[in-house]
Amino acid sequence: MKKINRWALMTLLALLVSACSLHPEHVQQVNQQPAIYPDYIGVTVPVDIAPLNFSMADDAFTDIYVDVKGEKGGSIHAEGAFADFDIDAWHQLLKANKGSRLQVSVTARKEGIWYQYHDFTIEVSPNPLDEWGVTYRRIAPSYALYGHMGLYQRCLSDFTETAMLENSQVHGQCMNCHTANRSNPDQYVFHVRGEHGATVVHQHGKDELLKARNDSLGGSMVYPYWHPSGRYCAFSTNKTAQMFHTGNNKRIEVFDSSSDVFVYDMERHEVLKDTLIMTSAWAENTPAFSPDGKWLYFTTTRCGDYPKGYQQVKYSLCRVAFDEKTGKIGAEVDTLVNADKTGKSVTWPRPSYDGKYLMYTQLDYGYFSVWHPEADLYLLDLQTGATSPMAGVNSMRSESLHNWSRNSRWFLFTSRRDDGLYTRLYFSSIDEKGRLTKPFLLPQRNPKQYYRRLMYSYNTPDFTSAPVKTDAREMGRKIESNKRRE
């Protein structure tokens, strides 16, 4: 009886909604697909992604009427100022059409006239995302100073965002580089800069605070990357500076007067130094371990008299063997992408966890790619050694700061393609044959309103397999205690 009453109530609600529906009349046909924001036309999504809500790109449109039908069955509807789909109905539709597609029909009203556009499709990937959400830093794209910033996590199946730690809880200090071991929420590291600076390491349910700067290393510990065993973490140590442009399409230049790469043993609390990756004549940077833990990738360039000649600073991609048992680094360095041959610079190497590919950013010079409009994503096939730009993923503006999902079928990256000012978070996928899909913007409930009001950039993003459990107040207390392991 309860089930009958429940279905009767749902039917009544559906009739009431239908009675209040816009029901476009006297529709004019438009011989093209709609211009929508975000541009979700032809994208490929996992079944566990939040609804792809959207608006008409033109603000003169006041109403929208959208029907979505699954090729394998099922349909949903949204109408109003923007397409706001029911979360549960959206997920049911995607699950029913896994490996198939959705057909989206859009009718929109402008100056009292309804326009019917050509339908477009959204592909539903057969490959699940298998990640709970993402983590990232949000920061204003300032040049010399910073204000409010924080480390956040976002559930990808809905629109829930929570703060892991904000700098208001550590008296306005700078925080960056929250880095997990293969999206593991229970093993991560991040940095705090300033008066109470620290490198915070969380593992085995405990927090350990290391000195953020070690004079014997010649700089601060930055750009971490975990060894898959969890015992080691590679860092670079950088002396970073910046300068400003006045006459081109770049605003700021970030460079290192020197840098090295080292490995930290989490069990023995030892810094593993090696001359091959800590040389005086070369600046090693941006390390990353291979998924089997046998290689350490990094970028390197000859040291120079900076900032003089900064446009000639071009990093090559290299790797060196690593022995997990002894913590020893090999005796030879392999060059995988040679800057002398390409005439370009490499930064942010990130190998896929299945060992097939290595994604990196290529730019004209330097390594701080977020400020370089020409920066593009490239894919290196680790079996063949072939490398190529990621066509269909790159834009005319900066692409950078990328990471893989655990199943290596999905990846995220930041891009300034939206307005050229703020980095936003995008997702794409790669199939068994290496084919890439059109990227889609991180969904928001009301995306046009959200992104227009958001005066912050997404930075250092990564996937997380489950929510990161943090106590911000307790973490702030630990950071301000100044108790550090040397």
List keywords for this structure.
45% strand; 2 domains; 486 residues; mainly beta; 7-stranded mixed sheet
Description:
This protein folds into two domains: 25-124, Immunoglobulin-like; 133-480, Neuraminidase (6 Propeller), CATH 2.120.10.30. It has five helices and 34 strands. Strands 1, 3, 5, 6, 7, 8 and 9 form a seven-stranded mixed sheet that branches. The protein has a five-stranded antiparallel sheet with strand order 17-18-19-20-21, with no helix packed on it. It is mainly beta and 486 residues long. Helix content is 10%, strand content 45%. The longest helix is centred in the first third of the chain and has 18 residues, at 2-19.
Strand content: 35-45%
The Rg value, from CA coordinates, equals 24 Å
CATH architecture of the largest domain: 6 Propeller
Shape: globular
Number of domains: 2
Helix proportion range: under 10%
Structural class: mainly beta
Number of helices in the DSSP assignment = 5
CATH superfamily of the largest domain: TolB, C-terminal domain
In the CATH hierarchy, the third-tier topology of the largest domain is known as Neuraminidase
The top level CATH class name of the largest domain: Mainly Beta
What is the terminal separation in angstroms? Answer: 68 Å
